[in-house]
Amino acid sequence: MTKNNATVVLADQPRDDTIGEYRVLGRPLGKGGMATVYKVEDAEGNVFAIKELFPELGRQKEFIRRFRREFELAAGLNHPGLVRHYRLFEDNLTWNLVLEYVEGLDCKALLRKLGPLAPDEAVALTCEVLDALAYLHRQKLVHRDIKPSNVLLTPEGRVKLSDFGVARPTAGGDLTRADAVIGTPVYMAPELFGGHAGPPSPSADIYACGVFLHELLTRRNPFGVGSKDDLVTTIAKITTTAPRRVASANEELNDILKKALAAEPAERFSNAGEMREALETLLPPSSIPRRLLALLYARVGKEKPTKKKTVPKEPLGLRPADLVGLGFLFAVVGLVLSAFFIKVP
Ligand code: AMP
Questions:
Q1: 71 CA to centre of ligand 1 in angstroms
Q2: What is the predicted pLDDT for the residue at 188?
Q3: N or C, which end of the chain has less CB nearby within 10 Å?
Q4: What percent of the chain has pLDDT over 90?
């Protein structure tokens, strides 16, 4: 398959071709709002992920600018909790970011497979996200799109934040109109909907971490936003409702969630480190988050989605349980009839 006809192939189909000098390995790893992510290898067999901007967006200056910006912001970062960004290149009219390949799965897939997590697992995951955020905030950057699909978990229990597509500097911001309402509404702090003019603040990442933690614990949105809600309803719920209590969490954890999700930025944790410290006190004393997360990852392999048990049917369409029931019924009827005939002379 040549590169030209590859662009008309549906995005989730396996590809058997190259992107620049990289060979594509199998199906896409995932798809975000702007790009498809592939596993690739170079001529030396080194494995990377390539994020390929959707071809239709690759012709629009604004999206190319955002993609370039994502690379420029992320390329200088070096933290084990952040996906490394190596290079940006154009190939045959498509724009591509070469990333560190993360073997594992994102937290959205993790939740789909395992359902709500136990409090210590959810807390350990969030602690690791907060570590990466603390580093990012020290670099005067905000991520602005913390959500389960952007948090990758490796088999070793390492957490890596991906997708810096909407990350921005905290000061000297150059917000354009197109940038002004960006992020994923259910994870956006209420102040971001009110025409918030100042530079993006780390406090919005803390709030998103609160939504993230609540979702890990319940698979639900803290403000009752459902997948069918439109943007207006979503904003109304987020800005006017108090966060729901999490039944599986103790008082301390519910208080931490409440603080992270405060409508007023000043009432939230003042930085990622502070929220991490508060959460850490809830972890079992001997637990190291990474070990806990490696165990959590291992559960993905063990717990298969519950399939309906298919009991083999008997030739007459009756299951063994049906036969036992029928046998019992015949016995009772037999007893009643014999008692009747014995009494009648
Ligand atoms: P994104 O466009 O960054 O939101 O990525 C979409 C999906 O692709 C994610 O939810 C992950 O499942 C997957 N993905 C993104 N980056 C990587 C990576 N560096 N390594 C492996 N999978 C990735």
A1: 15
A2: 86
A3: C
A4: 50
Would you say 148 and 215 are in contact if contact means Cβ atoms under 8 Å apart?
A: yes
Q: Under a CB-based contact definition with an 8 Å cutoff, are residues 222 and 214 in contact?
A: yes
Q: What is the DSSP string of 155-203?
A: TTS-EEE---TT-EESSS----HHHHS-S-GGGS-GGGGTT--S---HH
Is residue 1 scored above 60 in pLDDT?
A: no
**Catalytic (active site) residue 163:** no
Q: Do 72 and 110 fall within a single domain?
A: no
Using the Cα atoms of residue 83, residue 86, residue 89 and residue 91 in order, give the sign of their dihedral. negative
**167-193 pLDDT, tens per residue?**
566 543 443 334 444 668 888 888 887
Ligand 1 centroid – CA 5 distance (Å): 24
pTM, entire model: 0.79
Report the atom number in ligand 1 closest to the C-alpha of 165. 3
What residues have CB less than 8 Å from 212, skipping those under 6 apart?
A: 107, 126, 129, 146, 147, 148, 151, 187
- Asked if 119 and 217 sit in the same domain, the reply is yes
Tokens of residue 109, six digits: 């897939």
pLDDT of 65:
84
Specify the 3-state DSSP secondary structure of 35.
strand
Q: Which of 106, 131, 145, 163 is catalytic?
A: 145
Structural domains of the chain, count: 2
Q: Are both 90 and 127 inside the same structural domain? A: no
| Residue 96 CB neighbours (<10 A) | 24
Cβ–Cβ < 8 Å for 66, 56: no
pLDDT in tens, 98-149: 999 999 999 999 999 999 999 999 999 999 999 999 999 999 888 888 999 9
* Structure tokens belonging to residue 132: 């990466």
Q: How far apart are CA 132 and CA 209, in angstroms?
A: 12
Same domain, 88 and 135: no
Ligand 1 centroid to 31 CA: how many Å? 7
Instruction: Give the domain extent around 279.
Output: 105-300
Tokens coding 134: 């603390």
Q: Is residue 149 part of a domain?
A: yes
Atom of ligand 1 nearest to the CA of 102: 20
